[in-house]
Amino acid sequence: MSKLPPGASTLPLAPWRSPLARALHRNRSRPDSRYLQLATVRSDGRPANRTVVFRGFRDLSDDLLFITDTRSDKVAPLAGHPHAEACWYFTQTREQFRLNGQLTLVTAATTDPAWSELRHRLWQAQSEKSRQSFTWPPPGQPRQAAGFDQPLPSEPPDPFGLLVLIPTWVDHLELRGTPQHRYRYDWTGDRWVLAAVNP
Ligand SMILES: Cc1cc2nc3c(=O)[nH]c(=O)nc-3n(C[C@H](O)[C@H](O)[C@H](O)COP(=O)(O)O)c2cc1C
């Protein structure tokens, strides 16, 4: 599962990066502007959805970074169902971005030095509280009385994983204005194509 696809490493950055950067900037006073919903597919084909924190873009790419516990339910199905969609609503500017693509998992078993270095970097960037949560007993299992007081490791422990969303389709809806504005960005395999569409 930690085998990485080549990814759409693009320079210059994708055309949807500019409106997304603008939204992040204009909504920066609200801490929840970095929360988004990430939908995946369960092993039986049913949808799964949850809130995650956007941790930035991978350097020189359009890949979105998230952290997660590799023992959580969202992770195992990715081996067979890597498709995912992020849905991000910015309350201040009233705009929605939907980013659809594939998720890749970076774990302690990932051997590529660049990915391993990125995993270490994001571990170092976490608060103590966030790091501690990766020493807790497995998420989703029956609650235990003990096991929440493990020592804080300096190196990322095995449960610390990165989720990397490589978008191939982006839908941007601006609610402001009548009629509203909506833009579709499609990755054709070698470039992004932008189209204004009806809201
Ligand atoms: C505001 C907020 C931020 C969250 N951030 C993350 C996150 O960055 N990564 C993560 O794996 N779970 C995060 N969670 C918890 C997830 O929503 C979810 O409960 C957990 O990951 C288990 O999901 P799963 O059972 O689908 O694997 C966050 C929850 C909330 C409410």
Write the layout of secondary structure elements.
Layout: H1 17-26, E1 35-41, E2 47-53, E3 64-69, E4 83-90, E5 95-106, H2 113-125, H3 128-133, E6 160-174, E7 181-187, E8 192-197
Bound molecules: flavin mononucleotide.
Flavin mononucleotide (FMN) binds next to strand 2 and strand 3.
Structure description:
This protein has 199 residues and is of the alpha+beta class. It is 15% helix and 34% strand. Strands 1, 2, 3, 4, 5, 6, 7 and 8 form an 8-stranded antiparallel sheet that branches. The radius of gyration is 18 Å and the shape is globular. The protein binds flavin mononucleotide. Flavin mononucleotide is lined by residues 35, 48, 50-53, 66-68, 72-74, 139-140.
Task: Give a summary of the structure in a few sentences.
This protein is an alpha+beta fold and 199 residues long. Helices cover 15% and strands 34% of the residues. Strands 1, 2, 3, 4, 5, 6, 7 and 8 form an 8-stranded antiparallel sheet that branches.
